[in-house]
Amino acid sequence: QILYLKPPWTLANLLKCYKKHWMAVFGYVVPRSLLSTIESLSEHLCTGKPIDDSTVRILLQESKKLLHAFSSRSDYNGVLPQAYTEVNKLYQTLTEVRGALLFIHLTSSGKNAACEKMEAMAPSLQNSEEKKLQPSFHVAQENRHQEIWSVLEGVWNTINLYSIEIFQKLDPNAMTVTAKSSFEEAFLGLQKLLAAVNDIREGISR
Do 69 and 150 lie in a common domain? Predict the structure, then answer.
Protein backbone atom coordinates (compact mmCIF):
# COMPACT_ATOMS: atom_id res chain seq x y z
CA GLN A 1 0.00 0.00 0.00
CA ILE A 2 2.91 2.34 0.59
CA LEU A 3 5.30 2.23 -2.34
CA TYR A 4 7.80 4.65 -3.80
CA LEU A 5 6.73 3.62 -7.32
CA LYS A 6 3.58 1.69 -8.23
CA PRO A 7 3.64 -1.40 -10.47
CA PRO A 8 4.04 -2.45 -13.20
CA TRP A 9 7.77 -1.87 -12.77
CA THR A 10 10.61 -1.56 -15.19
CA LEU A 11 13.98 -2.85 -13.99
CA ALA A 12 15.05 0.72 -13.23
CA ASN A 13 11.88 1.34 -11.19
CA LEU A 14 12.30 -1.92 -9.31
CA LEU A 15 15.87 -1.09 -8.31
CA LYS A 16 14.73 2.38 -7.20
CA CYS A 17 12.09 0.77 -4.98
CA TYR A 18 14.73 -1.53 -3.51
CA LYS A 19 16.93 1.41 -2.62
CA LYS A 20 14.05 3.54 -1.28
CA HIS A 21 12.64 0.82 0.99
CA TRP A 22 15.90 -0.96 1.78
CA MET A 23 16.31 0.07 5.41
CA ALA A 24 12.62 -0.24 6.32
CA VAL A 25 11.76 -3.45 4.45
CA PHE A 26 14.33 -5.40 2.48
CA GLY A 27 17.15 -4.94 4.98
CA TYR A 28 15.14 -7.08 7.40
CA VAL A 29 14.79 -9.90 4.85
CA VAL A 30 18.33 -10.12 3.44
CA PRO A 31 21.71 -8.87 4.69
CA ARG A 32 21.80 -5.07 4.54
CA SER A 33 25.25 -5.19 2.98
CA LEU A 34 23.56 -6.30 -0.25
CA LEU A 35 22.50 -2.71 -0.81
CA SER A 36 25.84 -2.32 -2.59
CA THR A 37 24.68 -5.02 -5.01
CA ILE A 38 21.48 -3.08 -5.74
CA GLU A 39 23.46 0.11 -6.30
CA SER A 40 25.92 -1.66 -8.60
CA LEU A 41 23.12 -3.17 -10.71
CA SER A 42 21.40 0.19 -10.92
CA GLU A 43 24.57 2.02 -11.90
CA HIS A 44 25.53 -0.36 -14.68
CA LEU A 45 22.16 -1.51 -16.04
CA CYS A 46 20.03 1.62 -15.83
CA THR A 47 22.33 4.46 -16.89
CA GLY A 48 22.91 3.44 -20.50
CA LYS A 49 26.67 3.27 -20.06
CA PRO A 50 28.51 0.62 -22.12
CA ILE A 51 29.87 -2.31 -20.10
CA ASP A 52 32.50 -4.92 -20.96
CA ASP A 53 32.30 -8.67 -20.48
CA SER A 54 34.21 -8.58 -17.19
CA THR A 55 31.63 -6.19 -15.74
CA VAL A 56 28.81 -8.38 -17.04
CA ARG A 57 30.27 -11.39 -15.22
CA ILE A 58 30.47 -9.38 -12.00
CA LEU A 59 26.86 -8.19 -12.40
CA LEU A 60 25.67 -11.74 -13.00
CA GLN A 61 27.52 -12.90 -9.89
CA GLU A 62 25.93 -10.08 -7.89
CA SER A 63 22.51 -11.01 -9.25
CA LYS A 64 23.01 -14.64 -8.22
CA LYS A 65 24.05 -13.47 -4.77
CA LEU A 66 20.88 -11.37 -4.44
CA LEU A 67 18.55 -14.13 -5.65
CA HIS A 68 20.20 -16.63 -3.33
CA ALA A 69 19.73 -14.28 -0.37
CA PHE A 70 16.01 -13.93 -1.06
CA SER A 71 15.67 -17.72 -1.43
CA SER A 72 16.01 -17.99 2.37
CA ARG A 73 12.61 -16.29 2.64
CA SER A 74 10.64 -18.01 -0.13
CA ASP A 75 10.86 -19.52 -3.59
CA TYR A 76 8.14 -17.04 -4.67
CA ASN A 77 5.94 -19.69 -6.30
CA GLY A 78 8.87 -21.12 -8.23
CA VAL A 79 9.80 -17.83 -9.88
CA LEU A 80 13.02 -17.38 -7.91
CA PRO A 81 14.62 -20.78 -8.75
CA GLN A 82 13.71 -20.22 -12.40
CA ALA A 83 15.28 -16.76 -12.39
CA TYR A 84 18.40 -18.09 -10.66
CA THR A 85 18.72 -20.86 -13.24
CA GLU A 86 18.51 -18.40 -16.14
CA VAL A 87 21.06 -16.02 -14.59
CA ASN A 88 23.37 -18.94 -13.90
CA LYS A 89 23.05 -20.12 -17.52
CA LEU A 90 24.09 -16.68 -18.73
CA TYR A 91 27.04 -16.69 -16.34
CA GLN A 92 28.17 -20.17 -17.38
CA THR A 93 27.83 -19.32 -21.08
CA LEU A 94 29.91 -16.18 -20.68
CA THR A 95 32.50 -18.09 -18.66
CA GLU A 96 32.76 -20.77 -21.36
CA VAL A 97 33.14 -18.14 -24.09
CA ARG A 98 35.85 -16.33 -22.12
CA GLY A 99 37.63 -19.63 -21.51
CA ALA A 100 37.52 -20.51 -25.21
CA LEU A 101 38.81 -17.08 -26.24
CA LEU A 102 41.58 -17.30 -23.66
CA PHE A 103 42.59 -20.74 -24.95
CA ILE A 104 42.66 -19.49 -28.54
CA HIS A 105 44.72 -16.47 -27.49
CA LEU A 106 47.26 -18.60 -25.64
CA THR A 107 47.63 -21.24 -28.34
CA SER A 108 47.77 -18.74 -31.20
CA SER A 109 50.52 -16.86 -29.34
CA GLY A 110 52.65 -19.99 -28.99
CA LYS A 111 51.95 -20.39 -25.27
CA ASN A 112 50.82 -24.03 -25.28
CA ALA A 113 53.11 -24.86 -22.37
CA ALA A 114 51.67 -22.03 -20.28
CA CYS A 115 48.14 -23.20 -21.06
CA GLU A 116 48.97 -26.75 -19.96
CA LYS A 117 50.48 -25.47 -16.74
CA MET A 118 47.36 -23.36 -16.13
CA GLU A 119 45.16 -26.47 -16.44
CA ALA A 120 47.41 -28.56 -14.22
CA MET A 121 47.90 -25.77 -11.63
CA ALA A 122 50.84 -27.70 -10.21
CA PRO A 123 51.55 -26.57 -6.63
CA SER A 124 55.25 -27.46 -6.98
CA LEU A 125 55.96 -24.60 -9.40
CA GLN A 126 59.26 -23.03 -8.35
CA ASN A 127 59.70 -19.27 -7.84
CA SER A 128 62.40 -19.16 -10.50
CA GLU A 129 60.01 -20.68 -13.02
CA GLU A 130 57.22 -18.26 -12.08
CA LYS A 131 59.43 -15.30 -12.93
CA LYS A 132 59.99 -16.67 -16.44
CA LEU A 133 56.27 -17.04 -17.22
CA GLN A 134 54.45 -14.40 -19.23
CA PRO A 135 51.99 -12.08 -17.38
CA SER A 136 49.14 -13.67 -19.38
CA PHE A 137 49.73 -16.95 -17.51
CA HIS A 138 49.07 -15.31 -14.14
CA VAL A 139 45.90 -13.70 -15.50
CA ALA A 140 44.77 -17.03 -16.94
CA GLN A 141 45.48 -18.86 -13.68
CA GLU A 142 43.53 -16.29 -11.67
CA ASN A 143 40.59 -16.58 -14.09
CA ARG A 144 40.77 -20.37 -13.79
CA HIS A 145 40.56 -20.15 -10.01
CA GLN A 146 37.54 -17.83 -10.30
CA GLU A 147 35.82 -20.21 -12.72
CA ILE A 148 36.37 -23.19 -10.40
CA TRP A 149 35.03 -21.20 -7.45
CA SER A 150 32.02 -20.11 -9.54
CA VAL A 151 31.16 -23.73 -10.42
CA LEU A 152 31.37 -24.85 -6.78
CA GLU A 153 29.33 -21.82 -5.67
CA GLY A 154 26.73 -22.59 -8.34
CA VAL A 155 26.45 -26.20 -7.14
CA TRP A 156 26.03 -25.08 -3.52
CA ASN A 157 23.40 -22.46 -4.39
CA THR A 158 21.48 -24.91 -6.57
CA ILE A 159 21.43 -27.49 -3.77
CA ASN A 160 20.04 -24.85 -1.41
CA LEU A 161 17.33 -23.70 -3.82
CA TYR A 162 16.16 -27.21 -4.68
CA SER A 163 16.31 -28.32 -1.03
CA ILE A 164 14.08 -25.42 -0.02
CA GLU A 165 11.58 -26.30 -2.74
CA ILE A 166 11.56 -30.03 -1.90
CA PHE A 167 11.21 -29.55 1.86
CA GLN A 168 8.39 -27.08 1.36
CA LYS A 169 6.52 -29.73 -0.63
CA LEU A 170 7.21 -32.41 1.98
CA ASP A 171 5.97 -30.16 4.79
CA PRO A 172 2.36 -31.19 5.60
CA ASN A 173 1.77 -27.81 7.26
CA ALA A 174 2.61 -25.88 4.09
CA MET A 175 -0.28 -23.62 3.09
CA THR A 176 0.50 -23.39 -0.62
CA VAL A 177 0.54 -26.25 -3.12
CA THR A 178 2.67 -25.77 -6.22
CA ALA A 179 2.33 -27.55 -9.54
CA LYS A 180 3.61 -31.11 -9.88
CA SER A 181 5.77 -30.15 -12.82
CA SER A 182 7.80 -27.86 -10.56
CA PHE A 183 8.62 -30.80 -8.28
CA GLU A 184 9.55 -32.96 -11.26
CA GLU A 185 11.79 -30.19 -12.57
CA ALA A 186 13.51 -30.03 -9.19
CA PHE A 187 14.02 -33.81 -9.20
CA LEU A 188 15.43 -33.81 -12.74
CA GLY A 189 17.62 -30.85 -11.82
CA LEU A 190 19.03 -32.80 -8.88
CA GLN A 191 19.92 -35.69 -11.20
CA LYS A 192 21.86 -33.29 -13.42
CA LEU A 193 23.43 -31.80 -10.32
CA LEU A 194 24.65 -35.23 -9.17
CA ALA A 195 26.31 -35.75 -12.53
CA ALA A 196 27.93 -32.30 -12.31
CA VAL A 197 29.23 -33.03 -8.80
CA ASN A 198 30.74 -36.32 -10.02
CA ASP A 199 32.45 -34.48 -12.87
CA ILE A 200 33.87 -31.93 -10.42
CA ARG A 201 35.07 -34.69 -8.08
CA GLU A 202 36.80 -36.52 -10.92
CA GLY A 203 38.37 -33.26 -12.09
CA ILE A 204 39.72 -32.53 -8.60
CA SER A 205 41.08 -36.10 -8.40
CA ARG A 206 42.92 -35.61 -11.67
Answer: no
